[in-house]
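In this supplementary section we document a worked example of the pipeline. Step one takes a protein sequence of length 192 as its only input; no multiple sequence alignment statistics are reported here. Step two produces a three-dimensional model, which step three serialises into structure tokens for compact storage. The input and output of this example are shown verbatim.
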Amino acid sequence: MSAPDRSNITQILTAWRQGDPSALSNLTPLVYGELHALAANYLARERPGHILQPSALVNEAFLRLMEWQPGEWQSRAHFFGVSATLMRRILVHSAREAQTAKRGHGALRVSLSEADRIAAAQPVDTDVLALDAALDTLERLNPRQARIIELRFFAGLSLEDTALVIDASVSTVRRDFRMAQAWLFQQLSPAP
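The serialised model returned by step three reads:
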């Protein structure tokens, strides 16, 4: 996205915050492509055959974004950070529903000799529920690091944009991001 588009988004968010009724319709075409790319990035980490498609995830997130009070928008980076958080929550909710609905139903039966071959052929998925639980724990231990992970990993914000959203220096964001990544890696790695 070009620099003029970035500043336009911030200006439109400011207009929305100030009560301009046309701001939301002006904002949509500017952010839809970036939100769609963000959703596609999220869904690329999901299990194969996920029921949500990027467009559906964007639409669901956009509906929830419209419920936000316009006075809460601080900047373009803040908007995309909130969008990423909402998409994460939608996917976690979807994963919980799928887990509840399918406990054992339709499970594939394979012999032990076939299990290794099948497991090797399957792409590695991010366990959304395990990641969500780890992020919840990190949020209790270090809220800033959890927020940085959300903004960097899920929203795809740069170090600079993340620093702007959380009101910290770029070096602090870089350090906390590395520490949080290491902590999450340890939490999500299988025990030896």
